[in-house]
Amino acid sequence: xxYLRLTLEPVPAASRxxxxxxxxxxxxxxQLRRSVYRQASYRCQACGRQDRLECHEVWCCNPRTGYQxxxxxxxxxxxxxxAKHVSFVRDPSRRAALLQHFTAVNRLAPEEAxxxxxxxxxxxxxxxxxxxxxxxxxYNLRMPALADLQQRQRYAGLSRPRYGR
Length: 165
Ligand SMILES: [Zn+2]
Fold this sequence. Notes:
The protein is α+β, with helices and mostly antiparallel strands. It is built from six helices and three strands.
């Protein structure tokens, strides 16, 4: 298989409820994603576009051990980010559009892209068949105490950033 600038990255569906973006207080997540964009020189790290960026969490899943851990972050344009998670996209026309973007970014033949998609869908099914233990790597230590979080949410309930994750 050839080197891909944009890979498809299935993650266990249940873990989407426990992303760092959802767990970190908004201010901390904001700081983190801004530093990721800065390090990427404000370009999508897959296709290079200077579009509105989103911060992708790179997760590694080991089906043998059942451990899922956060390995890093990537600045991605919205389209590349959505394409990464294409295995969660149910709408056939949206999926086709994302696959077209994936094909173009990686300069693949359409049948090659179909092969990658089939592989991603199969891996998605495999991942969702078991329980996972999630590790946030370096960010394990950065999680605030629950009481702190609740207090902050109570007093800063309206401070969620307006822009995308
Ligand atoms: Zn992109």
